[in-house]
Amino acid sequence: MSNIPFQTNMTMLPEYLRHVPAGAPTRQFIHYAQLIRSGRFARYDYGNREKNRIAYGGKSTPPDWRLDKVKVPVSTYWGKNDWLVNEKDYQRLLVELPNVIDNYTVPYDKWNHMDFAWGIDADKLLFPRVLENTRKAEERYRKEKEKAEKSATVKEEKKKEKKSEHKKKEEKADSA
What distance in Å separates the CA atoms of residue 62 and residue 37, rounded to the nearest whole number? Predict the structure, then answer.
């Protein structure tokens, strides 16, 4: 790991900044501010009860996101110096998500939000964990797929057996 006190490549910084905010719409920043102000993890507030009612099926305020409905396995990554995600909010997310399979705090006290994309040592501090979790997820998916295919094959065989038995009964009845 490098001996620098921060992870941003200062030589590349002007190039990075030419692409920020990289296509993020203004509404996204407004929504982020709404989340901070309200303390809720809710959908976008249109600022008008009638617009909210139209958007949210008659509700005048935006509904909370239902993290308890997330069924896919989730791996989370966080840095202790993240200026967009504080530790309290990160811990709350871990509690509310039902299927967290890994929660990884990058082992570098000054790791911040932009270091996930620009960190000089991301190849050492972050990417190995991401790749490990990706490999594990692919293995789980492969096993689940094999199990589902096997189950489907068994069901299909049972269906064929029933058809065959039914056909034999019909033939027996016809010959009688």
Answer: 14
